[in-house]
Write a structure and sequence with these properties.
5-stranded mixed sheet; single chain; 3% helix; 22-stranded antiparallel barrel; 707 residues; Maltoporin, Chain A
């Protein structure tokens, strides 16, 4: 049976109906309101760079520290580099990690990670599906260069109450859903919280230093998702959604003491540090179906990303029997607040599926920094600054998907108008996608698009810390623009074997890197001077093979890629990027031993990340020793590879509820992969590289109960 493409009008999401084996997982079709138009034989495989995932895809495999994670799953795909070990980095086809558009039910998120990037902010308990684009971007998406991660959460059941409770080594999760008014009003609520603070606080309290200092501290992450769904009639659906994700870290080491001078002084000294960061998002959406062929959807939203870090130090000096206290206080914070509206109209007629819409967003960027040094009541140094940038972005877009038998052609354009102070940028962005069914089982496809990005990340390190700041394009720092061409072939070799092969070429103009002042605290006032503009290019080939039978699922994802930069201020020729991993290979397998037991394995390999090291040392008269470099990122660290294993034990209770024990092993054969490299010189002035590894084998478990 040939597949059929089901075009959901109001959400513009394409689902695939294939004659798959019984073991295959179908997409969850919980949204019964929206009507469908059966058009031509188009599947997601006919789109370049599109990967569609459901909840089962996210829950299958190894869960690091007992917590399944969306970004960790995306890192296993071809064309995606993961960056540093354990982190939720997403470097797509030569991207820098700040150029990915994350959408939660259509709302853009600025901060999407926990614990410096160890986990993402997406709770898998509420996710219904994920569309991940590396190319072939629909015209309704804009604002970032490399990828789109479009996450859709599920609605609560209109018929019965249900939920999930999970507990792992790091955190616990609880999700509840059910009807408020049967067939009219429902809710879906999920929370997640870590308990590292409960572990860290007593351990730190046991720390007794010789000077009697008391150590306090802790870390906690918290997520909450709320979805209220209202169906007033057969043609309408209204959703109210709220998301909050926060991280909080506190540390202090204080010594209380009594000093005897001209009087008795009861005082203390030491230091305190606090870090907090997170994201808030709230939205109201409405979907209306006019007929089987037309619909309208609209969303009004508010989103906020914020970070705050503070450092306080105090010391005492008893001079001439008089106590003098010195204090140092520094605080750096930043936030981005955005409010916006999106509207989308869809219409299907004959061979055409047409969509058109408009989007408007206002954003406020507010970085601030304060610094004060005092001696007693005398202020030695004081500096503070707060800047606010207001930006407005208006966009219109239109797209027409034309299907004529085995041939499909989609043409679209997005027009952005970006306004920031005195700066005005107009960016037309055409998008073209085509596919052709060579045979019933072979599809050829190609795409071309222009993308523009208007927000930029100030970060001097590759960790997602609250010291990183988002800043807008200005008259000095201009937007970045990319062009990408991609092509490929999808083949259904047999009932069990699927093969997807493709290639891409991508360029970025006004590619920006932040050189800054070498501090983890980016300056507030002169931040524009810290950006260096240049060019970027990336190209490569990707191969994905998949075998699916009743009990076994196996997949292979291989990438051969090049990622290069050219910054005239840094180097006069093209040089390789830090995460230019020439080869990347991921092998995954899942086997269902019985109806109650399944095992999973994933093996990852990629060429080593690149670092900048001195290659020679010379001594110049009157100047001293000088280190010589052939260029940025001139050395490769050892190659990376690891094996992850997991096993799930399912059990049904007498009441029909399900419980799941998951046992996972991260880095099963304890490969000590390199984290960083340092270089020293021997007596003959020859460089000697030293590689540091930190992550050993990590076993974990979790327990999930569904009711």
């Amino acid at each position: 049976m040939k597949g059929c493409h089901i075009h959901w009008i109001s959400s513009l999401v394409a689902f695939l109906c294939l004659n798959l084996p019984a073991a295959s997982r179908g997409m969850e079709a919980a949204d019964t309101l929206e009507q469908a138009v059966i058009s031509a034989a188009r599947s997601p495989q006919a789109y370049t760079g599109l990967k569609r995932l459901d909840r089962d895809d996210l829950l299958t495999g190894t869960a690091l520290l007992g917590t399944p994670d969306l970004i960790k799953v995306l890192q296993n795909l071809s064309g995606v580099a993961s960056g540093m070990e354990l982190m939720s980095g997403l470097y797509v086809r030569g991207g820098d990690g700040s150029d990915n558009l994350f959408l939660l039910d259509g709302v853009p998120l600025f901060q999407v990670s926990h614990l410096a990037g160890l986990f993402s902010s997406f709770n898998t308990d509420v996710i219904r599906s994920v569309d991940f684009y590396k190319s072939g971007f629909p015209s309704r998406f804009g604002g970032k260069l490399s990828s789109v991660v479009d996450v859709t959460t599920k609605d609560g059941s209109m018929e019965k109450f249900g939920g999930t409770f999970s507990i792992g080594l790091l955190d616990g999760r609880l999700a509840l859903n059910g009807p408020i008014i049967r067939d009219k009003l429902s809710y879906d609520v999920a929370i997640r919280r870590s308990w590292l603070d409960a572990i860290m606080s007593p351990l730190l309290a046991l720390d007794k230093s010789e000077d009697g200092a008391k150590t306090r501290g802790g870390y906690a992450l918290f997520d909450s998702n709320v979805n209220i769904t209202y169906i007033p009639g057969s043609k309408d659906k209204i959703n109210f959604r709220f998301f909050a994700g926060t991280d909080n870290f506190k540390y202090s080491k204080i010594t209380e003491e009594k000093l005897y001078g001209k009087e008795i002084y009861n005082t203390d000294e030491g230091n305190r540090m606090g870090l907090s960061w997170g994201n808030l998002a709230a939205s109201a959406s409405w979907k209306h179906v006019f007929s089987r062929r037309s619909s309208l959807s609209a969303i009004l939203y508010y989103t906020r990303g914020y970070s705050d870090i503070s450092d306080w130090q105090k010391s005492n000096n008893l001079l001439n029997d008089v106590l003098t206290t010195m204090t140092y206080t520094e605080r750096a914070s930043g936030s981005v607040d955005a409010a916006g509206f999106k509207g989308l109209f869809s219409f299907s007629s004959g061979h055409h599926n047409i969509s058109a819409g408009a989007e408007y967003q206002s954003a406020w960027y507010m970085p601030s920094r304060s610094l004060e040094k005092t001696t007693g009541e005398t202020v030695l140094n004081s500096d503070s600054g707060t800047i606010m940038y207001r930006t407005d972005e208006a966009s219109v877009f239109v797209e027409d998907e034309m299907v004529y038998g085995p041939f499909s052609f989609t043409a679209g354009v997005r027009l952005d108008g970006y306004f920031s102070g005195d700066a005005v940028y107009i960016r037309p962005q055409p998008r073209v996608l085509t596919s052709f069914d060579i045979t019933e089982n072979i599809i050829a496809k190609a795409s071309y698009e222009l993308m523009s990005q208007y927000s930029h990340l100030l970060s001097s390190i590759y960790l997602d810390l609250p010291t990183n700041l988002w800043m807008p394009s200005t008259s000095v720092v201009k937007p970045s623009d990319s062009q990408q061409a991609a092509a490929g072939v999808f083949a259904r070799i047999s009932r069990n074997w699927h093969l997807d092969v493709g290639g891409y070429y991508r360029t970025v103009s006004n590619c920006l890197i932040y050189s800054g002042s070498g501090s983890i605290f980016p300056p507030v006032d002169m931040w524009e001077d810290g950006f260096v503009s240049g060019l970027a290019r990336s190209y490569g080939a990707e191969l994905e093979a998949r075998y699916l039978s009743e009990k076994f699922l196996g997949s292979l994802a291989y990438t051969l890629s090049w990622s290069e930069r050219k910054f005239d201020r840094l180097h006069d020729t093209w040089f390789r990027d830090r995460f230019d991993n020439r080869h990347k290979l991921t092998l995954s397998a899942s086997y269902r031993i019985t109806d109650n037991i399944d095992i999973n394995a994933t093996w990852n390999y990629h060429s080593g990340n690149r670092v900048t090291i001195p290659e020679h040392i010379v001594t110049l008269e009157g100047i001293g020793r000088k280190y010589l470099f052939s260029g940025p990122y001139n050395a490769k660290m050892p190659d990376y590879h690891r094996l992850d294993l997991s096993c799930n034990f399912h059990r049904k209770t007498k009441r029909g509820n399900e419980s799941i024990w998951n046992i996972s092993i991260y880095n099963a054969y304890c490969r000590m992969n390199p984290i960083l490299m340092r270089v020293s010189f021997n007596p003959e002035s020859e460089p000697v590289a030293i590689v540091y590894s930190l992550v050993p084998i990590i076993p974990s478990f979790s327990y999930t109960f569904k009711f």
